[in-house]
Every structure is written in structure tokens, then in C-alpha cells.
Amino acid sequence: MTSTAEHHEAHPNRDATYVKVALILAVITGIETFTYFESVLDFGRATMPLLLVCMGLKFYLIAAYFMHLKWDKPILRRTFTVGILLALAVYIITLTAFRFWDAVDVMPK
Amino acid sequence: MAETMTAAADTGHHEAHDDHGHVTNTGISNEKLGMWLFLGSECLLFGGLISTFLLYKKKLNTFPGFENTTVNKLGADLFDIPFTSVSSFVLLMSSLTMVLAVSSLQRDDQRRTRLWLMATALLGSTFLAGQVYEFTAFLNEGLGFTTNIFSSAFFTLTGFHGAHVLIGIVILMTMYAQALRGRLTSRNAEALEIAGLYWHFVDVVWVVIFVVVYLIK
Amino acid sequence: MALVEREPLALPAGASAGTAIEPLGVLARPATKTGWRAWVTTVDHKKIGIMYGVVAMFFFLVGGLEATLIRLQLAQPNGSILSADVYNQVYTMHGVTMVFLVIMPMAAAFANYLLPLQIGARDVAFPRLNALSFWVFLFGGLFLNRSWFVGGGGPDCGWFCYAPNSGVTFSPTHGVDFYSIGLQIAGVASLIGSVNLIVTVLNMRAPGMTLFRMPVFTWMQLVVQMLLLFSLPVITVALFLLSFDRNFGSNFFNVAQGADPLLWQHLFWIFGHPEVYILILPSFGIVSEIIPVMARKPIYGYPFMVFSGIAIGFMGFGVWAHHMFASGLGPMSVAAFSLSTMFIAVPTGVKILNWMATMWGGKILYNTPMLFSAGLVAMFTIGGLSGVTHAIAPADTQQTDTYYIVAHFHYVLFGGALLGLFAGFYFWWPKIFGLMLNDKLGKWHFWVTLVGFNLTFGPMHILGLQGMSRRIQTYQSTDGFTFWNQVATLGVFIIGAGLILFLYNCVHSYRTWKAAGRPNPGPDPWDARSLEWSIPSPTPEHNFDVVPEIHAQDDFWHRKYGEDERGRAVRIATTESVAQKGDAKGVHLPSPSFYPLILAAGLPIIGYGVIFNRLIAIPGVLLFLFGIYGWAFEPATEPGDHEGDHGHDDHGGDDHDGAALATPATEEAPVG
User: Cys staple from C261: which of A26, A51, C163, C663, with CB 3.0 to 4.6 Å?
Assistant: First the structure.
């Protein structure tokens, strides 16, 4: 049918890309998991930043490729970004007000 | 004045005499735009739950008088990271099968669509089963929903996520039932894509939870 | 397929088939256009808007009754009309009712009715979701008020319901359970509504209606819906935590276990402060429509109006902790939030200056809508200024929990939001019901309300600065609070008289209109500027005969008026010649549906189940699921109603087949 043909044009076959992205995601998850086994590989003080970077990367890959934000209209990306940034802003401020970031000062026992 | 701003303000185009449903100002269907708005909103829902968890995890660490009681057993000591890594991986791969299902349907390959849909639902169910197993293990260790502030926050956060996964599975199975009756065709590809958006979002939330809740100490 | 709710927006395509077709779905759709069935199954944004308005007006009477009880209790020292316990419940429910069940739904009434008209659309993006959000709101509101009868009294923790006061220990009745679940349900309604209206505005504008040609009211509603979209999930979290604590024994606000009650305050006010702008911005939008029409001038500084609205929206997320200055946040947090709060006064001030500049030099028509609008500008300015005094943290430490705060927020919510909504009632009444409200009675209504309002809330500034505490059920004769309290109580009865004048006006105007042979006010009784006035009054079911093409801001005005060589406005066309006739035939409209009502009815039953007995929840869940699946498998439009829609549809025959896919959008919205 003609419309099927149109669909072909409108939706390029990206299956190979998806599989590649999934592979990268799997590798990153592997790295993340490894940080837990300090005896195998100790990242020391870099552990937390590394984990956060891994997390951000995975988040980006899923949103950009699997959720098609990379190819979709910018307004969708903006909507989602506003939600994420707003959430980060209000909750980081809240946690700051709770002095969450201060070094853990275990109260006198 | 205002007129000078109009050109930049609106990127959508119109076919003046064709008010056909497919033409929207933004060029995006109402349903897809609505789903993305909803997902934007969900960011603040999970953000709130994650913040609550982080706050109470730290609070319990610093709260005097609870250090040596068994009640205070921190979930972090109970976490079975290898197990959770596997279930995280399972959920991650369900995103791949989901996107392949959408891609198959866009090509009107209904047989593959059904296959990938079923795979996605099964992977999602595996993840859920893993969560049930984990919860049971915690309960057996004496860490229940009401045990302490940490456990309440933990079960609420992961429970909310699990509920989202469950709803996702129900949606997928409904779609699958439609597919079996031959009612899921390339014309509905966008409906499946929107269901997929929801599914990927649930996955993305778990990406955050896995790091913030399980891996960061 | 069910997902596609946009099909009905096709242009008229000749006479509709009208043949009897076996309806799909389990429940047959009603065929009538009148009677109760037409109302409970309607998906027409206009009918839904009217229902919102009626229900909000009912709750306004309930909330007003509660206010009167409070004032009667405080009319004299050692008042004994309400016990301390009941007093707590009454002021809590007064606040909750006025915020969630009066001002928000009244604004939603205008949004539902006017947004599609102002952007030139035939309906909202998701007509059935629109019906769903109304029914969910209605059931949520009724559920909340059921606590008086089956919950052992209303919630008694204040509308903000601070922890740990909201815990079972301090509030052992079911009142707070009804509060948390009732607001949760009402929140679902607002969330669905916000997604729906944002999509409508972004996606369904008429050709040429660019974002910066939209009327200011539409803009303000867009900002409000954005605020709702992003702030509601936060209160959702807070209410879930509260419910879990009370009903399932979790420890979120259990101080003995090391919980931090400030968590509730943060979550509540991250939602609560945007909520303040959610309440006021619709009224700002309404007066921004009325003042230019009555001053016979275009709105002054349209882009400034729009951008200040957007700025208020964004900054509204960054000031929440100014509600918590007295809670021991620490000097850094207090200083930061104090500054951000002062900054948010700037865009608000821009709006006030723009309204005044719009009026300046205009030939102002002092009719009822204009009086209410001017009343808003004046009263809101007073409230806004007293608000700036709270921004200064040391001053706020003195003002917190006194009547000074009560005075402030009534000046912005009553003097601001409510006066604006009443202005809207008078202004759009002819468009909605096809008859004008009596202007003389309306002016009486305005002046009586204005006097009563100032008598009630003006003295509270004094009482507050003298140190009278909020939320205390009485005072002593030696406190020196007696005189101003009596003035305030007198004021509340004058406000009541004003409200009765309004209700009488509704009846009186209808009767005289009927006696005069139902004269039609014409499409454009105010010689107004926006699109809704280019179609007949009352609005025809299909809104527009032909979807208009927009060439400028205030397009309708420019079709009526041109400029002479000296730049003055001159008539170039009569209203009759440019207005639509409303006689289009065969316009495809979305079909009515029972499912929104059924789905919504399940929610309060689940709520009872959570509170009383889990078994009760089972029928609720079943009803809910039946609603969702019935909905998902019911096409938005009856198959027979939409041939001819598809100009380039090559599928023809199987058009009805795909009619049945569960849509994530419709399935998801209720649980979020």
C-alpha cells in the first residue's frame, strides 16, 4: 500500500543503531556495577563522579535514541528538559536547606 | 511590537484550508505531546521520592540512639548488588526490545512486533519478579515498610517505580492482545511509540535509582 | 482508534450521514442533546466549563458558610459558637474549599469555555479527558466534604496540614485521611486538565494564530497549566507520604524515628507557592481581556504582559521557602528566598502598571465588568504591597501566624482572584448563556462586595500587627481585639449580601430576559476584541462555522475597525458583517461518553477503601478498570460520524477497525 511506503520513508530503519546503543548501555552498566566491587577495581574518590557521569550518559542515550528525542521536534526535548531541570533545581535547593551536602557529622553518641 | 515577534514565535505551519487532524501547530500529534508533558510532570514526582529517600538515608545515619539496634539495620547493608545489577540489565534490555517493537510496527512487520512486544513484557515481568524477591528478602531480614525512615522511603520509592512498571506491562499486554486480533497495524505505530515513551521513561527512572539508591554509598 | 480524538475537528463536509449505526462499546451512547444524559456524558468543552462553574459556585457557598461561622465565633471575646476542635476543622475546610474547590475550578471553568474559542478551535485536544477531569474534580470535592459526615469531622490541620500535627497522634479522626486522599483525587483532575489545555493551546490554534497573537487570558492560562503540570506531582508525593504514614504506618513524619517534619513543609510549599500564582493568574488574564475592551484601547505593552506572566510562572518555583521563614531554615536560605521573593514583585508590578496605562487616556465605560476589573487592580495592589512586607524576613518573623498574613492573602485571593472571576462572569455571561446580567444590580453587587470585603479584611491588618494569632478559636476581652473583630464580622455579612445580590441578579436577569421574549444580545455586545465574540451568543455547539484565519493580534477588532489618516480607530465593518452566523451544518463533533464519569466514580470508592476497609476498594478498582477499558475500546467518534474526514485517506474501509487501542495517555493520566 502506498501509505506503507510512506511509512518507510518517514521512519528510517534504525534497528542497528538501537542495538549499538543497547550495547553501549550494557557496557556502562557493567562499569557501574564494577565500582561496587572495590577489591577488583578501586576508583577511590572518583567513584561517585564516575557513577554520576555513567548515569547521565545512560539517561541521555535512552532519551535521545530510544525515546527518539534526537530526531523528534525540539519542543518535546524542551518540555522534558524543563521537567528535569525544574526537578533538579527545586530538590537540590531543598536538600541544601536540609544541609544534606555537609559532611556526615555523626552526632555525639 | 507584537507582530515583530510572531515570526519567531511559531514554527508550526498550516494548510489553511485543510483542518485535517494530522496538522497541528507544532507538527506533533496531541497524544504524543500530551505524553511528553506527562513525563515532564513525572520527573518532579520521582524527584520528590528520590530526594525523600536521600534525605532519610542520611538522617538515619546521623540520628542518635539508633546505631546499634537491629531495627536500624540499614538497607544499604542488605543490598544484593550483583542481583540488582542483573535486574537493572534486564530492564535496560526491555527498552531495546520495546524500541524494536515500535520500529517493526512502523515497517508493518506485525509478526516481529508481536515478538518484541512479548519480549518486552516478559523482561518487564522478570524485573518485577526480581523486585518482589528483593522485597521479600528484606522483610525476612527484618526490614519492613514501617521499620524506620529509611525503609519507608526505600519501599515507597521502589514501590512507586514498580507500580509504574506494572502499569507499563498492562499497557503492553493490552497492545499485544490487540496485535493478536490483527488490530495493531502500522497505522497505530504512533500509539505503540507513545506506550514506548512511557516504558523508556520508567527505565530511565530506574537508571537513576540504580545509581543513586543502590550504588552510591 | 480511540487514541485519535482529533478527528472531530474536520471542517463541515456536507450533511452528516445521520443513519442509525450500532454504537460500539458496552454502554450505548445517548443520542439526545438535552436532559441529564446529555450533561453527564458530554465531552463539549462549553458544557464542561459551565458545570465547573456551577460546582465551584456551590462550593463557594459552602466555603462562605464556613467563613461566616469563623467570623461569628470571633465576633466577641470568649465566643462559644464553635469549640476549639470544630473551629480547627472549619478554618481548615474553609481554606481547602476556597483554594481547591472554588477558585481553581472557577478558573478552570473559564479556561475550558474560553481557551478553544480564543484560539479558534472546535474543542480541546482531548474532549473525553476533559470530561474526566471535571468528574474527577467533582468526586474529589465531594469526597473531601464527606469527612464532615463519615470521617468523624473535617480535617483539623489547616489547609497546609503541617506535620507532625497531621499525624494520627494529633489528629485521630479520619479528617486528615479525607484531606490527603481528597486532594490527591482533585490533583489528578487538575493534572489531566493541565495536559489537555497545554496541548490544546500548543497544537490547536487556528491558522495564523501564532503564540504571540493569542489573547492575554489564553497566555495566562497556558502559564497556569504549566505551573500545575510541574507543581502538582510535588504535592502528590507529599500527600502520598502523609497517607502512607496515617494508613500504612510508615515513618515519613514520625519524629520519634528521626523523621524531619520540615520535609512536609518543603514539599507542600514547592507546590504551594506556584499554587498561589495558579490562583491569581487566571484573574489577571480575565481583567487583561476586559480592561482593553472597556477602555476602548488595545492592551498596553502586550509582550510585557505575556513575558511578565511567564516570569511570574518561572520565579514562582523559586520562592517557596518564604512561607517557612519562622521554621529555622538558617540565615543563608532565608536571605536567598527573601531576595527572590522581592524580585517576583517586579513582574507583578509590571502588570499593574500595564493595566493602568491601558486605562490611561481611554474612554472608559464604567460597567460592571470594568468595575470589578478596576477593583482587582486596586485591591490586589494593596495585597501585593503587604506581601512585599513579608518578603523582609525579620518583619515576617513578627507577622507570621498573625492576622496580618490572613489580611494579606485575602486581599490577593478575594480582592484579586475572586473579583477578577466575578468580572469574568459579568463579561462572558452573554456569550455563555445568551443574555446579559443586569448592569445596575451588578454595580450594586460590586460596591456592596467591595465595602464588605474591605470591612472584613482591612481590620485584620490592624489585628495582626496588634498580635492577634491566626487559628486560635477565641481571644479575651482584655486583649483589645474586640472592636476590629466585630467590624470584620459585620463585613462578612455585607459580603454575603453582595453574593445574594449576584445570585438574585442571575435569576432576575433570566426572568426579565424571558419576559422580554428572549432577546439575543448579539455576537458582540461589548464591541470586544477576541475571537469568541465573532461567533453567535450563546456559542453554537460547533463553535466556529469556519475556522477563522488570523492576521493580527486582536484580529476580530481589526476586522471591525481600521485607522483614519490621523491614526484614530474608525469603523470599517459592522459586527454583523464580520461575525459568523453559527448555522454550519454537519460539523463533526466528538461523541458523548459515559466512561469518564464511570472512571471518575471509581476513585472515591478506592479512597473509602484505603481509609475504612480494604474490601471497599475492590468495587472501586473494578469500576476504575471497567472505565479505562471501556474508554480505550470506545472510539472517540461514532464510526458513522466521521466519513469525509480523510481527504487523503487510502485505508477507507478499515477506518473503524483500529478503533480500539488502549492509549497510554488516557490510561496513564489517572494514576500519575
Answer: C163
Q: Taking CA C570 as the corner, what is the angle to CA C564 and CA C573, rounded to the nearest 5 degrees?
A: 125
User: What is the identity of the amino acid at B8?
Assistant: A
Calculate the alpha carbon distances from C499 to C441, C446, C504 in Å. Answer: 11, 9, 8
Cell matching residue C34: 438535552
Nearest CB to A83; choose among C230, C266, C651: C230
Grid coordinates belonging to A40: 577488583
Residue C258 contacts B, CB cutoff 8 Å: yes
Domain harbouring B147, CATH code = 1.20.120.80
Report H helices in B10-80: 30-62, 75-78
- The count of domains in chain B is 1
Task: Give tens-digit pLDDT for C553-594.
Answer: 999 999 999 888 887 888 888 888 888 988 888 788 888 889
C contact residues 109-148, partner B, Cβ 8 Å cutoff:
125-126
User: Which residues have a Cβ under 8 Å from the Cβ of C630 and sit 6 or more positions away?
Assistant: C25, C26, C27, C594, C595, C598
Q: Is residue B97 part of a domain?
A: yes
Tell me the shortest Cα–Cα distance from A10 to chain C, in angstroms: 17
C568 touches B at CB < 8 Å: no
Q: Which amino acid is at A77?
A: R
The answer to whether residue B47 sits within a structural domain is: no
Q: Which residues of chain C have pLDDT under 70?
A: 1-28, 30-32, 636-672
| Residue A95 near residue C319 (C-beta atoms within 8 A) | no
* Whether C267 contacts C235, CB under 8 Å: yes
Range of the domain at B203: 81-217
Confirm if B6 and C210 have CB atoms less than 8 A apart: yes
CA distance C180 to chain B (A): 16
Q: Is the ipTM of this complex over 0.85?
A: yes
The structural domains of chain C, ordered by start, are 260-479+500-519 (1.20.210.10), 533-578 (no CATH)
Q: Is residue B194 part of a domain?
A: yes
Consecutive H or E run containing C569: strand C569-571
Task: Give CA–CA dist C40/C468, Å, rounded.
Answer: 47
**B71 located within any domain:** no
The domains of chain A are located at 2-70, 71-101
Give the Cα separation of C49 and C34 in Å (integer): 16
Q: CA-to-CA distance for B149 and C607, rounded, in angstroms?
A: 25
Residue identified by cell 459515559 is C594
Q: Span B43-54, mean pLDDT?
A: 96
